Amino acid sequence: MRNGKLLGLILALVLASAAQAQTGALERIRQQGFISMGYLDAAAPFSYAGEDKQPQGYSVDLCREIALGIRAQLNLPKLETRWVPLTIQNRLEAVRTGRVDIECSTTTWTLSRQKEVDFSLITFVDGGSILAKMGSGGRLLDFDGKRIAVISGTTTEKVLREGLAQRSIRAEIVTVTTRPEGLKLLQESRVDGFASDRTTLISLVASAKAAGAFRLLDEDFSIEPYALALPRGDPAFRLAANRVLARLCRGGEIVNIYNRWLGSLGAPSLLLSTTYFVQGLAE
To answer: How far apart are CA 202 and CA 208, in angstroms?
Structure first.
């Protein structure tokens, strides 16, 4: 009898766990009345804290649209958005462990990362570049024997190391944890270059009001497709997010969001415009 009760208890726990897994993020959001979204506070113009300390940027606005779409899908009178500040180093872990439902910044979609988290449709296409002081060379080869700062744990670090090795360029890699830290090392001439995504480097220099003092590589050394990180094993939640992104692409609203945050850099590139067009999936 005692064994029978124990077996029943174990079975009940297993069934409860399975039911919870099947409901996923959408049902939990419906029950709790809020959605948790992660952001970086220093990844302008995609994700950063404004003067009012509230998250803002291109990726943040896309996530706000997704929150509105989920609210409508669940037919909720209101849905609270809880913003959680993250770092480049812990952003994927936050999604994997359920600390946040979605991560809204500059995460590059890679197959190795997809072992840990899932991804939305592509939200942006950027390229890896190196920021250097004016007068420096404009090719990767020009950094032979020099020092290059890069944020640790990023796809940029991985691709940069691979690119240098393939070209037999002997440069010293100096890892940092934030973009402002990398820029500071460059300004103080403690490194000869700072590697990151081209768009964020342009924004970083613009915010430092020192655009005339720096230059970028003449060509990118990598392609960085950004996407929003989502929990693995939850196709209903991924579909809800992608449904909103597809609608924004299909109707052209995503270009308005681009212009709001990146319009000063010019119109979307041909590659990005094509990405928007292809991802305007029909319902």
So the answer is: 10
Nearest CA to 124 out of 138, 104, 141 is that of 104
Q: What is the pLDDT of residues 201-218, one digit of tens each?
A: 988 888 776 666 899 998
Q: Is residue 5 part of a domain?
A: no
- Which of 223, 240, 267 is a domain's end point? 223
Residue 173: give the domain boundaries.
128-223
pLDDT tens profile 52-94 = 999 999 999 999 999 999 999 999 999 999 999 999 999 999 9
Same domain assignment for residues 75 and 137? no
Is pTM beyond 0.85? Reply is no
Considering its fold, how many domains does the chain have in total? 2
- Reply yes or no on whether the pLDDT at 10 is more than 50: no
> Is there a single domain that holds both residue 197 and residue 228?
no
Is 111 found in the same domain as 154?
no
Q: Are 34 and 47 in contact (CB under 8 A)?
A: no
pLDDT at 184 over 80: yes
* Same domain assignment for residues 115 and 134: no
